[in-house]
Every structure is written in structure tokens, then in C-alpha cells.
Structures
1.
Amino acid sequence: MTNSFNALKLAQEQITELDLQLLKRRLRVTQSPCDTTASIDGRQLKTFCSNDYLGLANHPDLINALAQGGQKYGVGSGASHLISGHSAAHELLEKQLASFQKKHIPKVRALFFSTGYLANLAAITGLARLSQRGDLSIYSAKLNHASLIDGVRLAAAQMSAAVNLFDHTQLTSLTDLLKKDTKSLKLIVTDGVFSMDGDLAPVKALLQIAEQYDALLIVDDAHGFGVLGKQGHGILEQENIDSDRIIYIGTLGKAAGVSGAFVCAQDSFIEWLIQKGRPYIYSTATPPAIAHTLLKSLEIIAGEEGVKRRAQLNQLIKIWQDEMAFSEWSKVSSCTPIQPVILGSNANTLMAAKLLDEAGYWIPAIRPPTVAPGTARLRITFSANHSADDLRQLITTLKRIEQEVHQKVAHD
């Protein structure tokens, strides 16, 4: 056996290069449920980094529902949905998910996926197949999640489509491009809540543009579903939007606390994705016990407990925006549980994350390519299980660490 064939050598060299650039990622293994504290290597760390916004991932009612689902349906689905894997639990879940969006999408129907990545790939590539090769244009927000970006790239390659990136904070360039677009199918693709900045897409304005230029609007509301809107139905509820040209995608492993994702759209679009959405057709269905658990999660999200948990989140957001002031770093004006702190350099951000770890906090450093070069950050996220005291203790710690990092950089 050779010690270092060419592919292995390339991998080793490029991993070393990532390490030198302070861009190598490292796994941390937890020994506890997802909550506001985590057990790691025998230490208890306060966590402000998960997407469990409503604090449901370790909710006793969901734990019981999962056990009941396992007893009723077993632990696996056995096949893809179109073979034999589509259970009564999946069907009930899809109907309930569709009911969440019935005021916002006429003749709405839902399709359940095992991950948000698959849902985005299926929606974008499947809808792209409505066009003839070369007769499709795709418009994608520059700061979209990687799954949307990959879906757009794959659809563009399959259908020889033109791809145009736009800045969601100013839509003039998008409008100018669409004015000249003569393609028969046009897709506008955007996150609902941008995952690294926590700001909202201008969905109403994008819908007006889609209507004016006969485009479909694909909205990935991964970080808005469960959090936004009076009943937690997401950004369409918050913005009071109603349109049959919206393709709404939500994630169920964040605020919903479990796993999976879904696409909601007008019935004909969903039927088309069942026929042509390759990630749906060729993936083994999620275990029915997960779908059974999610029915309980949706009940909590839309009920009185969900209202209380969103109120707690909003209180935390207000405390942060009112009381957290930096002298060297910068924060973003976000109305969501995502509250990034921008440090800029990879080295400074890694240093801050290390000092936070030493102080008993788990807030990883986010670096390129997840964010743009020069915008490395601490991505702080809130859970409804955090208390106001938890947050104020973090604020005090961050102010101290900011000065420590500044002094070390100045000394060096």
C-alpha cells in the first residue's frame, strides 16, 4: 500500500491550508439533550448557539410523542414515499402543515421531506423542470443559505438557465433585470430570515415584483417558521401575504424542535414535485414516529404555549437590542432570535469564542465561506428557555471579553 497517493496528498495539503487560514472546522460532541446548557467533555456550557428557538427539542410532550410514535409505527419507514413509506402519520402531518398556510396560499398542499436541504433542492430543481432547456431564469438573493445556492446551481446546470444574484436590501437591480427577461419561466429565490444576519427578506416587495413580471417566488422560511406571526405560522402570516405564486419552505428541526422540512404550495405545484422532484422520489421516507412527534410540535406552536414562548423570545430580543452596546465590535439590528456580533477577522473571532468557552459559554466562531471574508462573527441565538438573567449574564461576559480581545490585539 502506498503511503500517500495523489488524491490523499491533495486532501492533506488543503486541510493544512484551511488550518493556516484559521478556517478549519472542528466537531464538538455533546452528551446531553439540546437545551440552554450542554455537557461537553465533562463540562457544562451555557449554549447560545442552537436553532431550537422555542425550546422544544427537549420538551417532555414531544419526548412522549416520539415514544408513542415508535410504539405505533416502529422506527423506520422502509421505503420512499412513492413505494411504501408514506404512512398515516406523514399524511396527517402534511395536512396540518398545509392548514398553517391556507390563508396565504390558495388551494395549498404540503409535502414533507427529511431535511431542509432536500426540500430546497427538490423545490428549485423540480420547478425548474417546468421549463424547456434554456427557457428559464433564476434570481437568487446573494446571502441565501447554501442549500438554496446548491439548488439554484443544480437547476441552472440541468436546464441551461441564467442565474442572477440580487441584493435583498435594495431591489432596483432585480427589477431592472426582470424588465429585460423574456424567458417563459422565472424563479425568484430567497431566504425568509437570513441565517447569519437575522434580518427579514422584503417578501411583500418581492411578491409585487414576481406578480409584475410573472415569476414564481420561492421563500425558504427555515428560521421564521414557528417564530414569526401571531400563531407561529411564519413570515407569510407576519406579512399578511396571500398568493398562489409563492412556494413556501419551512424547516422542522429548528423552532419546531424535531427534524425534517416541508414545501407548501398550490396543489398543482406540489403534484408536480411528487412527479419530478428527484430528492423526494428517491429518498427513503422519514420514520413515521418523527411525523407523529411533529404533530404534537405543531399543536404547541399554534397554541397558548407557543404564544408564551414567542413572547419570551421577543423579550430577550428587546433586552439584547436595548442593553448590549459594543465599543469595538458591532451588532446587527435584528428582530429575530438570531443576533450576530461582527468582529471581522478570523483570529479575533476564534479568540473571542475561546474566551467564551473558558467563561462557560458555547458560541462558535462563524467564518468564511459561511459568511463573507472580513465579516467573521459570533452568531448568538436565543431560545425561549433562556431567562432574562441568562441573557444579562451573557451581556456582562461579552463586554469583558470584548475588552480582553481588544487589549490582546493592541498588545500584539
2.
Amino acid sequence: MNHQVGEGRRMRGRRWWAGIDWSADSQHVVIVDDDGAIVTHLVVEESKKGVDEILAALRALNPTSHTFSRRQVPIAIEDGNRLLVAELRRRNQPVVLVPPTVTARYRGRHAAAVSKSDRGDAALLANILRQTPGRRTPLPDTTDEAAAIAVLARAQCTAAADARELATRLRSHLALYYPAAAHAWAQMDHGLRRPEALAVLALAPTPRQAAALTKRKIYDTLATAGRIRLLDSEAERLRDLFQKPQLRQRPATETVMGERTRLHVTELQLARHHAEQLAELTDRAFAQHPHYPTYRSFPGAGPLLAARIFAELGDDPARFTTARALRSYAGTAPITWSSGTSHTVVHRKVCNRALKTAVHRWAFSTLTRSPGCRALYDARRERGDRHAAALRHVGNRLLSGLHHCLRTNEPYQEDGMFPAPEQGTD
């Protein structure tokens, strides 16, 4: 009897950790104990039945305890977008995301010969949680609405990046046979992605066809594409540019290269259309969220930029307890390297890269919209900071203000963010 009581107390004091190595066909689930020994190994499908088997295995770890719950066993996985993860989180099971780069660093720590297997990777993920329990937190408890906004914002960012890549590919192709078109819009915003540029290229994809265009035809094409200002002078500029003598490919080669340009133009127009549609959907969805007024009250936080920042932060109020935690996650908080007499402060590289990029653009856009941000940027430049370092300081201040405003449900106030210095008294 005493042995059973002692065994029960020992079981109540034990802890377990789980890891899942996913694949297209099957998911290997491994549960380890305090000593790192494997106590359970399952191979399940990515289905409701598979989730039930995982949760049943967690409940069976300590069936005699009335205080034990499967929610005390965190599960590590490398991909947080799996349907398996969505179902586990719906069942309130804590899931911890471990990046593949972290798994790769841990792989060679426990054996001289590095090997890889599905079962071994699942055990490795579980042991990462066991060895660093305080440094690995479960995925944030974001609402379904916030997750939907994140999907739209990230898809729009990807579509915009695709459009930029297609424009670069088109410009490289034009430089091989049509240099006038390759440089015609280079000094304008968005370059070859401009609707008027794509309309002219669709009308005249070869130098021969462009040289034959009249000023009136170019004028009408620009107007149809949506250009309003300086139509006459722009049509005259393009006509003169296209009629200048330039190096040319042979006729047959030029013709087929023009057909390829038509395909590039069609792809780029479609990519722009997708990016615009996603931008509209993103803003429409984000405008319905309670955090929308707070984000949009900040200078430089346009609809898309605000949505991208929100997509990476979510709306879990317990995710960032301090402003410093938020700044560290965004990569704007510096890191100090100190050893002996050496003391160096460097910028943070391990962070959310998408959020860091968005905050950088946000900080840059405030320089013409916020006197306080501009003054802070100029002060940092006078102290010797380079452009990027000064923008990180501006981003730090903005993130601190965002953290405060979200906590207090208040809009941005320039005077509160950058209070005027107190005047001295005689």
C-alpha cells in the first residue's frame, strides 16, 4: 500500500513533453518524460481520428491523478499552419512552434554521429521543450478574426512581392531588345508596374511598333490606363523616346521577343490585380476589428502597413506583457555583447523578419508625418547613427507607444508620445 502511495506521489510530480514531426502522409508523435526517455510513440493521420489518438495518449500519461490534465503537456511542432495544429488549438491543447533552424542546431548535441528520422525528430522537438521550458511559449491565443486578417495581409504582401519580381524580370527582358521601354518609366514610382506602362507595352511590345505610334495614339492609351495629369507632355515624351535611333535585334528575333513581352505584361497585370484585390479585402476585414482605430491613429500607419503589423502581432492581450518584449520580437531592441573589457551593442537579427521590415517602413514613413519622429531621427543621426540605426530608434518609440495605446485603448497622441521639454524657472 505504501509503495502504491509513493508511486502515486511520484507520478503526480512527473512532467511530460511531446513533439510532432509532420509529413504529407503521417505524423510521428513522441512523448518524453523528465529524463528525456521516450514513453510513447504514435504514428497518426492528419485527421480528427489522429487528433483524438494524440489527446488520448496525453490523458493516459497519469490516469490516477485528479489534478493532471493533458493541457499540462505542451506539444512542439515546426509548422504552425498545419490543420493538425488548428484542431489541437481548437481543443485548447498548448502547441509550441519550434523553427526548423532551432531543431537543426539541437540535432548534433546528443550524439557524435548526427542522424535523422521521423521518430528521432519528434523526440528531439519534445526534448527541446524539456530542456528549455521557460523559453518556449505556446502559440498566442489570437481570435479567428485576427487570424483571418493575418492570412489576407500576408497573402497581399506575397502578391505585391510577386509583382515586383515580375517587373524586374520584364525590365531585364526589355533591356535585351527594347532599351527605350526598359528606361521609359524608370524614374517614376512603381516603374514598369504602372498601369500606363503596361498599357503602352501591350500596345507596342517591339521597338518597331513603338516607333510607329503617333502622339495621339499614345495620348489615348495613357488616358485609358488612368493617367490624368500632363497627358500631352507625357505622350510627346514617349513618342520622341521611341523614335530615337537605338540598337535593335534582327527582325524575326525582335518579333518573338515582343511576344514574350506580351506574356510578361499579362502576368504582371494579373499580379497587380491580385495585389489590389487582396489589399481591398485586407483593409475591409481589418476595419471591422476593435484594434483598427488604434493602429490607424498612428502617423504613417496606412491601411496596408497597419494590417501587416497587426498580422504579426495578433490580438492576444497576454502575448506581450511589456513593451520591451514587443520590441525584442520586432527586432528593434538592441542586443549587448559584453565579455571582459569588450562591450558591444548590436542590432537584433533573431526576430520576426516580416514585422521588422514593416516597422522599418513604418518608421521611415513617419519622418514626414510626425514632428516628434523626425526630431528623434535627426537627433540620432547627429549622434552618429546611420540611417537604419536611427530608424530602429524611431521604430522602438513607435512600438512602445503602440503597446501603451493597445493596453489603455487610447488613440495616438503626438504630445503624449513626444512631450515638450519643461521650461526652467528663474
3.
Amino acid sequence: MDVTELLRSASLLVPEEAATENDITVRDVWDHLAYDEWQIALSLLEELGDGSPLPLTFWEQLAEAAEQLRLERSAAWCHWRCSEIRNGMIRADLTLRPASDARRRTPIAGHGVLRPMWDIGNLSPTGGAAVSIAGLWVEDMPFLEPGDRATVRLVPLTPSHWKHVGTGHRINMHENRTVAGTAVVLEIQLPPTAVPTRRSTHGSTPTPAIS
């Protein structure tokens, strides 16, 4: 499909009664599509998608439209939302350790590139600390500097590892053995299929230990 078809198809998945904080509705999207104002229509659809849960197809179509328009940041965000629907999402208040106290000296890219390890209280078979991998998206900021604080969104690689995590929990971010930052969980949404993994001594994939 071309950009117009993708955006029009995605718009049909938005309930007509849905509205943003600025009272933007899908009818506004249709007005912009009528004049081939694709980038504006895409932006409005992203806003509408942030306000109410919409199906995976919606975000897949927006991602494809953004790629055709060569809007890299928008495409990355739409693909990220697809990942959230598939694997779940954890919002947290993250504070990075300052450069003087941590190995990292450079800022973290905010658009979902980094997939750090997280100490969420799981243990390895030997009883030591184990970590779970989750991608990181920084809300409203292109970068997060060492020592800074921001609200972040995490997409877990293995959602079942996070079943015991709840709001208010403190979790540590690792890029190596040292703690790179500490986050307080604000919200957690896991897919219904995120069931606890059975322990097995044969054929299982262990949770990585911190090394």
C-alpha cells in the first residue's frame, strides 16, 4: 500500500469518539489526508494511538507509512509500540548514575536502541543475582545524559520474568557488573500470555547472570 492507503487504513481502526487532550479526532486526520498532508496526518494518528489502546495492525501500518516518508524517529516509535503490544511495557522513573561513579561516559540514545540488563530480583540457579533484558525508550527526550533522570518505557525480552514486578518496585539497570542506574516502576502492562516459565534442568534457557 502507498502512504495514503496506509494512513487511511490505520485511521479506520480509531474509534470516531476517540479524542486527544487537544480535542483532535480521526475526522481531523481525514481532513489532512484529503489534502495529502501525510506527515501531519501521521502525527495526529500517533497522538490518537497514545490516548487509547489500538490493535497491532494500527501501529504496523503507521510504521510502514513513516518508513515510506523517511521519518526515522516516527518509524522507530511506531515499531516500538508494536513491540509493547507483543511483549508488554513497563514505565519507570530512571536515574542514571553520574559519569564519575559509573562506567558509562556518554548519553543514552532515547529511541529504543539500548537493551540493557535489569536486576529485578530474580536469582540464578546458584543463588546469585540474575538479570533480565529489556529495551529502553526515553519519553520526551532524544538522549539521557549520565546523572540525569527521566521517565522511560521498557519492553522486556522475556515478559514472564517480570510477572512479580509491581508499581513502586526499585530495579537496577546494568550494562556490566556495576549498577548504571536505578528506576522506580510507575506502571506495568504485560501481555496475557506472559505466564511464569517452568524451571527445568534440561533444555531451558537460563536467565543471564551479572558478569
4.
Amino acid sequence: MSAEPRAGRAPLWRDRAFGTYWIAQTLSAAGNAFAYLAVPLLVLEVTGSVAQMGLLTAVAGVASVIAGVFGGVLVDRYDRRRLMIVADLVRMVLFGLVPIVWLVSPQVWLLFVVLPICAAAGMLFQVAAVTAVRNLVDADRITEANGRLQATFAATAVLGPLLAGVVSARFGPAVAIAVNAASFALSAVGLRLIRLRTAQPADTAPMARERPLVEFLAGARFLWRQPVLRALTVLLSVFIFLTYGFTDVLIYHVTHDLGGTEGTVGIVLGLAALGTVAGALLVAPLRRRRGFGATWIGAHTLCGFAVAGVGVATTVPTVTALTAVYLCCLSVGGICSMSLRQEITPDHLLGRVTSAFWSTHYALGPAGAAILTWAAGRYGVPAVALVAGVGCLLVAVGGVFTPIRRARAPNRRPPHRDSGGPRPWARSAAEAPHGGGVGTPGT
């Protein structure tokens, strides 16, 4: 369990650097919430095929995995904030192309070009974003900071799908994707205003640079040699295989089986996202009181029941409620595992450890999405959801028989603050490129 927060400090929301970062991340998440609904609807509108939706998800997933192999090396070598800005600008331009092309004629092939590149940029962004939290707050506030970030993301996920559903129904899904593109521009501006702290001397161990693959493998070795992180990586890789295509299946279930419209899908995903808000707010006190193991295992147990229940649900309100439970528990489990990795991993390895975890974690996701959506179209959503739900329960049971059950985070001294307070346009030592070498690195 992480250390208790120290008294006498200003509330986290009053921290200028974290607050600016918080706003920038919220803007990015708001756009993602639009794309979350608009991209599948765009494919369904043109092709009418859930299998095509799954194939696009799978292709984007493969790009994420490939980007993850090198993303951690880049994050540990170069300015993390600048990498995030570049990733935002790339996604702004590419997503902006979609509505422009759709004005002339719908071209599904363009999505198979744009989405993988944006997914790769998104992976780089997420690896950098995880490492940035470590350089923004004290070590004993990492879980709280992650919880606040995820709660805000979830709040945007409530309004995002609702608004995306309305926009898609009124103007078409392509316009909703244009909103997504604009959000990345705003996020990039916000990121220009922050400055990261320097890392602790014990966490900064500059070494001669190696080949990118060698540096990535250094992160993978750390991940594999740490018993709790190894167990989390294996079990969560199975979990992502079972659930990576869940959103596509859910949208298909609501529109095909329950007769819902695009607006209905937006309402379901928007209201269900309240579960993510609840999970993000509950995770810190749950972890303090119950410990990492019980919190993580319990969350994934409830995920399994919720996924199975969605398949047999015959009304939209029931599907919404079960999806909210699923997202709540997904939020709790994800924040727990991400926070533990940030606490355990030395700063100079955090990018590569995060990269190695996500590359491994998501490796089975694309295949899972393709199989899940194909099976849903062929055998029906109830059968597929039941199998996936049982698989999630087995993942939770697996946690009981691994070091996850007894996992505790080490106590760390908080990273020191730079004198003079935040200087928005300056470049901190933590952001400066440094050597890689041997070492290693996870959500």
C-alpha cells in the first residue's frame, strides 16, 4: 500500500503545474470521447458490418503495440512534454482530414490509414503522460493524482458520447470526428504551459545510449523480473484479449439487437461513463483501506459478471447499468495497476517499463477484437459476452494465486521541487534527453 499523504500541504487541485496538465489532459480526453463513438458509427454507417468495426479496431491495436515497443525509449530519451505536443498535433491533422474527405465522398479506406497512425501517436502520448504524472506530484500522491485525472476523463466521457450521439444523429459522425481533431489542438496549447519537476538523484542514472531495441528490452527485463508487475502483465494481457472489442460489441448489441439509434448509443455510453467517474473517485480510499491486491482482484471479478450480464440483458437501461459497473471496476483496476508501476519503477526507466507493459498488454488485443466482433456477428452477443465474462472471472481468480494478492508499494521520498516555482516556458532536467541503458518499466 502507498504511503499516507503528508499533512500541511496545499490541496492537489491548487498545484499550478498539475492543474494545467489536468486541463490539457481533459481536453484531449473530451475529443477522444467523441471519436470513441463516432469512428465505429462511421464504419457502421458506410458498411453496416460489425466485423469491419472489429477489423479497424484490430489494425489500430497493432499500430499501438508496434509504437509501444519504441515509445518508451523515446520518452526516456527525449523531452516528454514535447513528445506529447507532437503526438497531439499529428492526431489533430489526421483526424481533421476525415470530415474534409467525407464532404466529397465517404472513404472507409482512409480510416484504415488514419486510425493506425493516430493510435501509434496516442500510444506515444499515453506512455509520456504516465511518466509525466511521476514528475508532477509527490510520490505519496500518485494514486490521488491518477484518480483525479481519471475522474475528470470519465466526466468528459459522460458528456462526450452524449454530445457525440446528438452531433452524429444531427450532422453525421464525420462532424463529431472534427470535434475530436479540434480538441487535440487545445490540448497541445495547454501542454505548452507546463514544466515538469526534476527527478530524484537516485532515480536518474544516465547511461550510454544503446540501440532502441536493446533499451526497450532493458525495460522489459525490469518488468519481467518484478514479481507483481510480471503477474499483472500476464493476467491483464488475457483480460485485454477478452475485452478489447467490447465497445464494438456493445454498440452492435444496442443498435442491432435492441433497436437503438445513434443517439441511443450515445446515451448508453455517456451514462455508463458515470461508472468510470465513480471508480476514479473510489480507487484511492479503497486501496488505502483494502490494499492493492483485494482492490484489484475484486474489481476484475465484478468486471467479469458485468460483461456476461450485458450479453443477456434485453433492455437498454439494463445494458447501461451493467456497462457502468464494468467501467467503474475497469477504472479501479486500471488506476491501481498504473499507480503501482509508477511507484515501483525508477524514473529513468519509467518510460521503457510503461512501454514494455503496454506493448505486451495490448499485443493480444487486436486479435481479441477481431475474434470477438466476428463471433458476435456469427453466434450472437449473448454467447460471446458469456464466454468473455467467464474469462474475466478466471483472470481475477488468477490474481489470488500470484504475488498480486500481497502487493505493496515501497515508500519513496518525494521528488524535490525546483527553486523559484513553475516556469511555464522552461525545460526541466527531467524533460531533457538522457541515456538509456539497462533497466525497465505500465496502466
